[in-house]
Amino acid sequence: WEKLVNTVKNNYSNVKTETIDCELNKTNTNMCQKENILGYPTIKIFDGNNNVKEFMGRRETDEILKFALSD
């Protein structure tokens, strides 16, 4: 995950990453329930237009990045 965050930060200014802990941080409970996060890690892509895609592929930097940048 850190590798992905650093790759995005250094190369893709139009993409933002966020880590949200749904188990330890109770302040995120409402959002986690709203987004139906049931297992961890869950990777979701929000496009800024209220569209959400859930990533179901291999948890590898290149795969996640390719998914995040796809239409």
Polypeptide structure, described:
The protein is α+β, with helices and mostly antiparallel strands. The chain contains three helices and two strands. Helix 1 packs across helix 3 (61-69). The longest helix is centred in the N-terminal third of the chain and has 10 residues, at 2-11. The model has no long low-confidence stretch (mean pLDDT 85).
Task: Write out key terms for the chains shown.
71 residues, alpha+beta, two-stranded antiparallel sheet, 2 strands, globular
Number of helices: 3
Structural class comes to alpha+beta
Number of separate strands: 2
Rg (C-alpha, Å): 12 Å
Mean model confidence by pLDDT: 85
Brief characterization of the structure:
Helix content is 35%, strand content 11%. It has three helices and two strands, in the order ααββα. A two-stranded antiparallel ribbon has the order 1-2.
Write the layout of secondary structure elements.
Layout: H1 2-11, H2 29-34, E1 43-46, E2 52-55, H3 61-69
Antiparallel strand pairs: 1-2
Helix pairs in contact: 1-3
